[in-house]
Amino acid sequence: MAEVKVGFYGHVRQYHNLQKEIDGAIHGVLESGTYVLGPKVKQFEQELAAYCHAKEAVGVNSGTDALWLVLIAWGIGPGDEVITTSNTFFATAEAIWLAGATPVFVDIDPKTCNLDVNLIEAAISPRTKAIIPVHLYGQAAKMRQVAAIAKAHKLRIIEDNAQALGARGDDFAIGEFGDAVATSFIIQKNLGCFGDGGAVVTNDSDLATQVRKLRGHGSLKRSHHSIGYNSRLDELHGAVLSIKLKHLDEWNDLRRARAQEFDAGLAGTSVTLPTALPGYRHVYHLYVVETDDRDGLQTYLQAQGIVALTHYPIAIHQQEGYPWGRDARISGSLQHTEKSAACVLSLPMYPELTSEEVKYTVEAIRAWDKARGK
Ligand SMILES: Cc1ncc(COP(=O)(O)O)c(C=O)c1O
Q1: Distance CA 337, CA 355 (A)
Q2: Residue 134 CB–ligand 1 contact under 6 Å
Q3: Could you read off the pLDDT of 309-342 as tens digits, one per residue?
Q4: Whose CA is nearest to atom 9 of ligand 1?
Q5: pTM above 0.90, yes or no
Q6: Does the beta carbon of 117 lie inside 6 Å of ligand 1?
């Protein structure tokens, strides 16, 4: 591989920008002697709930656990179906399988790559209990329509918001229509800690209490247990996330600004650009283009020192061994999901990405087009 000129992630730059504050906070936690589920996690939970305009946030070990623990808290398990998309990170469906329930996959809207809300109703069966829309790549799914269907069929909604913290719909907020929102804080997310972390955000205080209990070995009171799990958020992460949350809107604005530069620079090239729905605040967790020669473009960029990655080149239902002896159902065709998997390429996108790096990437794509006679 050529020397890296434009890397895919910006989190080390982000750390350097906030180093003094972060190092101080980490030192403070180390000296405090409290390392798991202490005051820093509590403070961050309150800040996150306020940021999301929700009553409660419950810190857990990962985004996967956030999804899974909500399903468990609701008693969704064997025999139940949960509608979602196959064009997402594996964990969305994995959480459904871990709960013992059956994922039901519907196709995506090829423009946004989010769940096609027009296909949900046909996927509903007497066993359906919930819908998990994913706010993929940083853009909210069409929640108003999802909510109307959920209401008509008495289904619950968990919004998988691992990728879109700080995003908005045109006339709605993430979490406004869902019964719960699950988010992830792994470092490559828009709000990332230095390891694994996640949270459930909800207006349902009973659900929040249930998840709090489940995350700590089924215990809300010392020495009193029922069966739960160990899914706690560490103090170091709580402290770091509190510092970073203050910058999230500004970072998302920077992502949007770099996305606009990509949009302008790549207009008229052979690659298909991401669609931002009118009025939506897309926060570009990823800037994903589509091309009929994805592998060719990725290799070309690599030779220019530009790291581009794929999200997600193998849809969940296309994974080897699927569904591993578990139940799964595909509703209708997943043709758009499969086409997207074959064509998508994520260009570098992070708040610390410079305009010069965007320009260099744009020029490389234009040169690639030229070399192909496009
Ligand atoms: C859409 C989506 N859902 C769920 C997850 C799972 O989050 P985590 O890796 O924190 O378990 C991720 C991220 O990895 C994701 O992108």
Answers
A1: 32
A2: yes
A3: 999 999 999 999 999 999 999 999 999 999 999 9
A4: 63
A5: yes
A6: no
Q: State how far the Cα of 12 lies from the Cα of 370, in Å rounded to an integer.
A: 34
Which one, of 170, 184, 59, lies nearest residue 134 by Cα? 184
Length of the chain: 374
Tokens (6 digits) for 185: 């804080």
Please identify every stretch of the chain with a pLDDT value under 70, giving residue numbers as ranges. 1
Both tokens assigned to 273: 């650009």
Q: Is the CB of 114 under 6 A from ligand 1?
A: no
Pocket test for ligand 1, best of 61, 62, 64 (most atoms within 8 A of CB): 64
Q: What's the sign of the alpha-carbon dihedral 18, 20, 26, 28? A: negative
Listed residue (97, 99, 103, 106) closest to 81, CA to CA: 103
CA of 61 to the centre of ligand 1 (A): 11
pLDDT tens digits along 210-222: 999 999 999 999 9
Answer yes or no: is the C-beta of 184 below 6 A from any ligand 1 atom: yes
Q: Helices (DSSP H) in the chain: which residue ranges?
A: 11-17, 19-32, 39-51, 63-73, 91-98, 120-123, 143-152, 205-215, 235-245, 248-266, 294-303, 335-343, 355-371
